[in-house]
Write a structure and sequence with these properties.
By secondary structure, this protein is an alpha+beta fold. It is built from 7 helices and 15 strands. The radius of gyration is 19 Å and the shape is globular. It starts with a strand and ends with a strand.
Length: 302
Amino acid sequence: MTDAYVRTTTAMGTVVTAHVVGRSASGADRESSTMRALDWFERVERTCSRFDPESELMRLTQQAGEAVRVSDVLFEIVRFALAVAEESNGAFDPTLGHTLAAAGFDREFRTGRVVPPRTVDDASDYHVIHIDEDEKTVMLDRPVSLDLGGIAKGFAVDLAARELLENGFHNFVIDAGGDLYVAGHNANDEPWSVGIRHPRAENEIIETLRLSDVAICTSGDYERVASTSPAGIAHHLVDPRTRHAASELASVTVIAPGAMTADALSTAVFVLGPVDGIRLLRRQKVDGVAYTTSLERYSTDQ
């Protein structure tokens, strides 16, 4: 059995844990490398939070009609969000900020402070966002409240994993509240065991996977429920095309090379439903499993 180092922080609305097994082959310090890895969550949150009026994302939303040069972090997240929106025919859409806030998902998780959207536009879709790959600029056709929560946390997981890998650590887990990257083996020199939460039985596992060197992200209708949600929005996984909560699925787990991909696709699949959602995963050549509200199982290996 190999020794392990565990470090936990709170960021992006969840508890983030790094579990690092063994030492670095390059001699890098395990504690400082792990702390730098976890720092990525705070950096991405400062950039992309819709709950911080001073975040780069919030400043961008106030500059409609202008081509704004943004940071590499924000540009990559917006670029990828638009790609997934196109591929999913709008089932994934980053312009849902106003809808989510109106449904009660408007509180900063640390303080409980209500952060209302700065715009009143609830009719936009991702076509109002334009990017310039060469200039690294983002332009919004009109003021719109962006929500990048369905992708930014996965990107932070990827950055944290890269930090550890580049410092010579090859056996670890980064766990950000359902968004994970598992590298190498656990302390028993076995692939990591990842349990999928039972969507209808608290503290129970419906399925267990043995995985290495992949990201795993789960979206479930049990994760975030706002007490003030209006009729039609019982949880945060909203269908952008109807502005109502997606209702066919209870849980979606996606396994992909990176967590940003798995994070965004798990949201898109949840909205698309079991049949179209699994088709999307197969087109993207990633694995996944979905459970309907009646616990019928769909997967890419069927």
